[in-house]
Amino acid sequence: MQITLEKLANQSLLEKIYIFNNEPDIVHYLDENNNLEYLLLEAHDTIKEVFPEERLSLRVTFDPEIVGWRKLVIDIHTKLDADEVFNKIKILDNNWWLDIVSTRANNLNINIEFDEV
């Protein structure tokens, strides 16, 4: 696969706005699913509208029972209480996620990580 300046710029930007958990796995996954780069940029901006103070990280998940199954996950790290998070997730779902998940984000998940207070 040819690495373009645009691809390097996108990856550099993604590394500034997301915490990469196990960077080699994420870079490899993005190389295989290059449609995700712009979606991740869009996701960051959209998530930050609803969760402005939360940290966002990326990780690749594996299913040990299904050979080759992998998915990229955006983790939203928060110290908010569960009720407030639930209300914010409903906003995110209704304003953006449910519209794109089946057409543009079938290889991406969003997860809430509750940090200790």
Structure overview:
The protein is α/β, with parallel strands linked by helices. It has one domain (5-114). 49% of the residues lie in helices and 22% in strands. It is built from four helices and four strands. It has a four-stranded mixed sheet. Helix 4 links the parallel strand 3 and strand 4 (108-114). The mean pLDDT is 91.
Which whole number gives the mean pLDDT?
91
The biggest sheet amounts to: 4 strands, mixed
The order of strands across the largest sheet is 1-2-3-4
Oligomer: single chain
Question: What is the chain-wise order of helices and strands?
Answer: HEHHEEHE
Rg on CA atoms, Å: 15 Å
What's the number of structural domains? 1
Beta-strand level of the residues, as a percent range? Answer: 15-25%
Indicate the percent of residues in helices: 40-55%
Structural class: alpha/beta
Count the beta strands. Answer: 4
- Tell me the overall shape: globular
Distance between the termini: 44 Å
Tags for this model:
117 residues, alpha/beta
How are the SSEs placed, and which strands pair?
Blueprint: H1 5-17, E1 19-20, H2 23-32, H3 36-50, E2 55-62, E3 70-78, H4 82-100, E4 108-114
Parallel strand pairs: 1-2, 3-4
Antiparallel strand pairs: 2-3
Helix pairs in contact: 1-3
How would you summarize what this structure contains?
The protein is built from four helices and four strands; from the N terminus they run αβααββαβ. By secondary structure, the chain is α/β, with parallel strands linked by helices.
